[in-house]
Structure formats: structure tokens, C-alpha cells
Amino acid sequence: MNHMHHHNQLDQNFLNKISFLDSKQRERLIPPEALISQMQIQKNHTLLDVGAGSGFFTIPMAENTSSKVYAMDPDRRMLSVIEDRAKEKGLTNIELIQDYIENLSIQNNSIDFVMASLILHEVSSLTKALSNIFEVLKTGGHLLCLEYEKDDLIIEGPPMAIRIGSEELEKALSFIGFKIVKKTKINDAIYTVLAVKTDSMP
Known about the structure:
Elements: H1 2-28, H2 32-37, E1 47-49, H3 58-63, E2 69-72, H4 76-89, E3 94-97, E4 111-117, H5 126-136, E5 137-148, H6 166-176, E6 178-185, E7 190-197
Parallel strand pairs: 1-2, 1-4, 2-3, 4-5
Antiparallel strand pairs: 5-7, 6-7
């Protein structure tokens, strides 16, 4: 009996963490629906959310396409939260992948749009992560990165040392072969960079 209670306690802590993450993200960001509605996502597009977490972007992404949405996260528990939310909403087009971006192994040239929200500062190699994303994207496919600006005045967010400033990210994207479409400051702390995989032939 006691053991069961303990297990529930763990689950409760995890659920608290998720609701905290969601509410924090909702406070800090424009609603995910609004962000996604600005994207060039079409009804038949195949999408990939590489830092799926609790499905903050995955769920609205899945509502915006009739095709498949891959939700990628190394944490199995996060993925089961997405699974539950998808069931609740009757969404059947989400495929869960438990892995790190550095191991991304979806078919090359198969994805139309990739969302990378607050995940790139956690990867072991930015170049490797972005190269993997570049490879799975179709020509003309887009990547939207959302990160905290590297600015000492902004205390909130991940430790300064691991943050990726927008200039650094733009350089890394260009180095891989992406073309920067648009950079947007969402608020003091958070920016987005939209990049496209262009045809290398002029």
C-alpha cells in the first residue's frame, strides 16, 4: 500500500513539472497556435518536433496537418504525456520517437517542417544536430528554432554558459547550408529563427 502511494507521489511531481512547464511557456511565449499559424505549414506537410517535451507545439502542429507529425524526446514519460493528450483530442497522426537529435534517424528529404523549441541549447553538438535536421528536411523545407537570447541582463532561462545567442545560431545554420528567412524577437528573452533548406544550385 505504502509503495503504491510513493509511486503516485512521483507521478504527481512529474505532472506538476509538466503543468509548470506548460504554464511558464504559455506566459512567456505567444500561444503556440499563433506561432504555428505564421508558419508555412500546409495540410499535407510532414512535421517533426525535435524537442517535443509535453507536446506544447506537437499537439497544435498535429491539428494543422493531415499528414504525420513526429514527436521526438529522449524522455519516455514526456512522450506518454503527448500520447495521452493526442488521445484526448482524437489525434491519430502523431508518431513518437524516444531519442536525442544527435541520433535523428528519420528518412532523408522526408520532412517539410521542423520545430526546435528550447532544445538546441541542450544538444551535445549543435553542428551535428543541425546537420541531422538539414538532412531529413526536403528542399524548400523549413526549420523554426526558438531559444533564449544570450544576454547577461536576462536571468530567466537556462544558464548563460549553455545558451545559444541568435547570432551564433544564425552562423551555425548558414554554415550547415540553411538560408535564414526571418529572425523574430518574441520578447526580451526569447527569439525565433526561421530557416529554409534551399536548393544548392542557383
